[in-house]
Amino acid sequence: MTTPILAMKNVVKYYGDAPILNGISFALFRGETKIIIGASGSGKSTILKLIMGLDRPDEGQIFVEGEDISKFNERRLVSVRQKIGMVFQESALFDSLTVRENVAYRLYELGVDENEIEGKVRQSLGFVGLEDAIDKMPSELSGGMKRRVALARALIDEPEIMLYDEPTAGLDPVTSKKINELIITLRDIKSVTGVFVTHRMRDAFTLATEYATNGDGQTTFHTEDNFICIANTRFLMLHNGKIIFEGPDEVLRRSKDEYIKRFLA
Ligand SMILES: Nc1ncnc2c1ncn2[C@@H]1O[C@H](COP(=O)(O)OP(=O)(O)OP(=O)(O)O)[C@@H](O)[C@H]1O
Ligand SMILES: [Mg+2]
Fold first, then answer.
1. What digits encode the pLDDT tens for the residues 172-205?
2. Where are the strands (E) in 95-250, listed by range?
3. Residue 120 located in a structural domain
4. Does the residue 163 lie in any domain?
5. Counting ligands in written order, which one lies closest to the CA of residue 41?
6. Is 22 in the pocket of ligand 1 (CB under 6 A)?
7. By CB atoms within 10 Å of each CB, which of 67, 132, 152, 216 scores lowest?
8. 209 C-beta closer than 6 A to ligand 1
9. Is residue 210 part of a domain?
10. Is 43 exposed, middle or buried (0-12, 13-18, 19+ CB in 10 A)?
11. Ligand 1 centroid from CA 134, angstroms
12. Are the C-beta atoms of 98 and 132 separated by less than 8 Å?
């Protein structure tokens, strides 16, 4: 039995009197992706914040690469954050810094050599198809470009864990598709473990049914047929602080639960 890369065990989190999360448990192994769905305010972003150690659970444990981070001090949490790339709900770029400086940010913090930084920034921007934007300011970019820069920034030191908080919100279908394909590539070609939060069921089902293969340096995307389940992705649905569904897309789609049926409709 291998250790999960990410896990929560009986996590409870209060903001005020009512628990936002009330006994959340799940585990994710290397290369798997979990899609968290649920109504606005159901605690999706809170789960990501707890994994990043940006807030602490009131009860329960959170394991990152086998270590329970729930009691870590700030110094140890900083090293946990370095293992995780996060794309925030808003792109959250630094407006006064260029694209290069935004993407390089973590490397500056780590004191990486300037020449090495330039190469890594170009590689990361190349992955999201934005090498030409390296000298631009965030204000010169479209919403979709900002989101891709945020993705490049999160990927700069090749984290094994990626957290995505509504990475396609407010974007047109073509740009959303591009971002979904980047996320699928990370999952299937680089075995990155991911948690993907979204409202948009279309993006969620894309991620759960499409997969990437790599041949001759070329990445190709495919859609699973009805009988096999290849995309290494499962859903987790939150409602009233609890997980009310956990499983693959085809089971979610066939759910008889009235709340889930209404949510998907
Ligand atoms: N730092 C905080 N202080 C107080 N309340 C908070 C804090 N963070 C989140 N909450 C509350 O916790 C609940 C869950 O918030 P969260 O951001 O996790 O929801 P969400 O599922 O991501 O919603 P959305 O889909 O709108 O992004 C909300 O009611 C929110 O107001
Ligand atoms: Mg949120």
1. 888 889 899 999 999 999 999 999 999 889 899 9
2. 161-165, 193-197, 210-215, 218-223, 233-239, 242-247
3. yes
4. no
5. 1
6. no
7. 216
8. no
9. no
10. buried
11. 34
12. no
Task: Out of 14, 17, 42, 50, give the residue to mutate to test ligand 1, the one with the largest number of ligand atoms within 8 Å of its CB.
Answer: 42
For residue 224, what are its two tokens?
């699973």
Which residues span the domain enclosing 116? 90-158
Question: Domain count of the chain?
Answer: 1
| 46 Cβ closer than 6 Å to some ligand 1 atom | yes
pLDDT digits (tens, 9 = 90+) for 49-82: 999 999 999 999 999 999 999 999 999 999 899 8
Residue reference for tokens 């859609």: 223
pTM over 0.85: yes
Distance 227 CA to ligand 1 centre (A): 38
Query: Which residues partner with 205 through β-bridges?
Result: none
Please tell me the distance from the alpha carbon of residue 261 to that of residue 249, in angstroms, as a whole number: 13
Atom of ligand 1 lying closest to residue 42 CA: 21
Whether residue 42 lies inside any domain: the answer is no
Pocket test residue of 8, 14, 17, 20 for ligand 1, highest count of atoms within 8 A of CB: 20
Residues 6+ apart with CB under 8 A from 71: none
Ligand 1 touching residue 20 (CB < 6 A): yes
Tokens encoding 71: 């009691």
- What's the CA gap between 17 and 77, in Å, rounded? 27
